[in-house]
Amino acid sequence: MGNAVAREDFEWVYTDQPHADRRKEILAKHPEIKALMKPDHNLIWVVVLMVLAQLTAFYLVKDLDWKWVVFWAYVFGSCISHSMTLAIHEISHNSAFGNSKAMWNRWFGIFANLPLGLPYSISFKRYHMDHHRYLGGDGIDVDIPTNFEGWFFCTRFRKFIWIVLQPFFYAIRPLCINPKPITRLEIINLLAQLSFDVVIYYLWGVKSIFYMLAGSVLGLGLHPISGHFIAEHYMFLKGHETYSYYGPLNLLTFNVGYHNEHHDFPNIPGKSLPLVKKIAAEYYDNLPQYNSWIRVLYDFVMDDTISPYSRMKRQLKGEVKQD
């Protein structure tokens, strides 16, 4: 077991997040980027194919031995499930149908949610908009770990366990940090999901349900793609709040690795973020960046100066508008 890290609190900062100013500066210099601010209709067909792929997998695993159900849940189901959460991330930004058809995106998000097994899409959208508006905002941005997480998961072994339990912490953190009243759409999301799960159980039995739920939990826990949770905003270098990843797993994750670009231009679909980087290369090429999410996970566990406390936090001023 590693020694406890030196950090005993978050990195409190008293400046605004850098993304709004950089966005303004880039648009003044490269106004052609505005042409990329449009929906990605191909996202619709990709999501439909992913849902069909998982439905096929639910059918194929129903008569397998349990060891093979577990094997395929991790090797295939986890990748599809984590990729689907990032498709839902794209949909939360109205990338499928555009801002003029916001409700179409909400309904499509509920559809994309179905093969995950647990209701997620509507609640994610509400909290994720806060993450963009109030990055690091104390009591608002639920992407920031709780004080308990920072205090307890402070050794190498405990940090490893924290990575395994990421889905659990992402689920309960909003209830601890920033609980919100349940909305009608969240109830619809819940009822649609329960109905879908019951139908899958009735048609194909418990192994299909296990494959679905295990794939979601495993894919969001100890998994190469889960490196993006830590890579995006954990402060491996003092003073740098957001980091991009330019490795091959962007192909499975709708370019979520282009995270500086995404926070600068959240209304540009993931498909076009490499173009943003290319057009405004002078702004992004020299920022700290990663090429391996697996290395990020390894360094997070093994580096005794990094922990869940390695995040920038802000005390928000003025009126806070939440979804």
Mean pLDDT equals 95
Report the span from N to C terminus: 42 Å
Count of strand segments: 4
Stretches where pLDDT is under 50 for at least 5 consecutive residues are none
Structural class by secondary-structure content: mainly alpha
Tell me the number of helical segments per DSSP (H or I, 4 or more residues long): 15
Which H/E pattern describes the elements?
A: EHHHHHHHHHHHEHHHEHE
Family: Belongs to the fatty acid desaturase type 1 family. DEGS subfamily.
Catalytic activity: 11-cis-retinol = 13-cis-retinol; 11-cis-retinol = 9-cis-retinol; an N-acylsphinganine + 2 Fe(II)-[cytochrome b5] + O2 + 2 H(+) = an N-acylsphing-4-enine + 2 Fe(III)-[cytochrome b5] + 2 H2O; all-trans-retinol = 11-cis-retinol
GO cellular component, one term: endoplasmic reticulum membrane
Subcellular location: Endoplasmic reticulum membrane
